[in-house]
# Entry
Amino acid sequence: MTNTTSSNDSQFVSQRIQDCFDRLTRAERQLANTILDNYPVSGLGSITALAEASGVSTPTVARMARKLGFGGFPEFQAQLRSELQATVSNPMARREVWAQNAPDTHILNRFADTVVENLHHTLNQQSPEEFDAVVDLLCQPERAIHLLGGRITQSLAKYMFTHLQMMRSKVSLIEPNSSSWTHYIINMNKGDVFIIFDVRRYERDLQRIAEMAAERGVIIVLFTDQWGSPLGKHSQHRFNARIEVPSAWDSATVMLFLIEAVIAGVQDKTWDETTDRMEKLEVLFEHTKLFRKFI
Amino acid sequence: MTNTTSSNDSQFVSQRIQDCFDRLTRAERQLANTILDNYPVSGLGSITALAEASGVSTPTVARMARKLGFGGFPEFQAQLRSELQATVSNPMARREVWAQNAPDTHILNRFADTVVENLHHTLNQQSPEEFDAVVDLLCQPERAIHLLGGRITQSLAKYMFTHLQMMRSKVSLIEPNSSSWTHYIINMNKGDVFIIFDVRRYERDLQRIAEMAAERGVIIVLFTDQWGSPLGKHSQHRFNARIEVPSAWDSATVMLFLIEAVIAGVQDKTWDETTDRMEKLEVLFEHTKLFRKFI
DNA sequence: TCCCTTCTGAAAACATAGTTTCAGAAAACA
DNA sequence: TGTTTTCTGAAACTATGTTTTCAGAAGGGA
# Structure
């Protein structure tokens, strides 16, 4: 029936899974992901153990083994073992390569190397106390939160806005057009939090609005790069993300990481209220039929 | 009976074998040597296979498993598997402390662990050929590029749009409001590239617009999660990013990584034109005095 | 909405793996 | 060499793993 996979012979199991991934069904994908999680060990136990670990039934496992072009589960497992033998006995394979099926000079690998290194440096430079302090600020419902980004970082501000908005009220995203900023400023109150994103090619206008906000007693949280935006002197809290990568542009990945970590922190700290809000949102989304519930 | 080996708990199998080697009988030594030859793979098959490979009987194998301090052969094998897991599974991503000045249970460290692991899995599942193919497509100036994201992923679409726009012409970002989509569709031509972002809680409307675009001969590139959006079947190219993190929400960090890698790939491939464009943009930004040059 | 197709897992059927028994073989000792 | 002890593997047996079947569930299409 599924003999369309005759060209699969002697391919890596991971490769095969990847190749057929979009022909797999829901339960099969769930299983595929479990197999790829700590590959290949998870596939070396019994079919029952694998089924349980992935939360599917044993027939599903057996079926997928056939779908991948094997005669049955034992054959699938034999292939895993022989792959392992090839990997373990080859000391070269122990080196850290991110995308194992690409040469290390491939942009994917070079990029991954740099980004992980950037993450390393960023976190070591970041004081957890300051992180916690910011999370704390954002948890206080009486403080309004305002977000603003620059030309490139506006998307990040938007992303953070989308999530904060799900968790609490009084969150606003300031539009990038600087001519309308004065209107936003007069709506800011003492004790409000103003989150600004500014990376190199620092934008002058941002500095101006930050100064005005600071004068009104607004607490400024700055997300910037390793060199530090000039408006650091107006800010109470700073995050410095490393952004240099092998490209003509800078990478926002580490900055997005910090944003998500902050969001996770806030969510963690206000678990009760946020889950409550989320459930309500869930119902709302259901109702508008815009979104379909995930299996 | 052979309970003299009670101190063996949680030792490596190879260690245990060496420890009691001189208490082993002839057939058992023969077996021991087979196990130690390409360790540990040889021990991961069936007891029968191992017996045959070492030229002894199955009872001998079972007996030795007990002699080494295990309850039986399956227990022996489980130990081998768990050793393997510790050895093979990426030592880098496992329990590394990212922010050294925070406890490893701090959300920053937990989050970093997971994201790096996600990056790992994502890259191993990603075929570099498909990556290159997408980069290739985006380099062809005659193809128009259209971008669209969902509720959460719109920011990512915007980010990619901002960068692609700097590099080439004919790039458009489709607004999130689905009522206006038909207007965008009629402007799409055969051979155009349509980049869609869709992660879990997959949005139905996206599927509809994708179908319509596919009918017009538009090439669809999909950024989705590890489970795969249902519109995968309409798309020619797919990126599956791992998005699960210790939070109530999913993480877009790995997806942003992929986006940036694609952007870097395009920029790399079209170096001459892009640098030319960038210089012109540079002059333009200078002129509007919106941006200040770095340092 | 209904119908049809596809997917899924419980349970039965089946196959293989693992253990125990036991008689013969090999070694150890006198 | 004879006696005793220990070792070994064929075979029977038991446990566990794997596949098949099938009915209900979920999803897609009209």
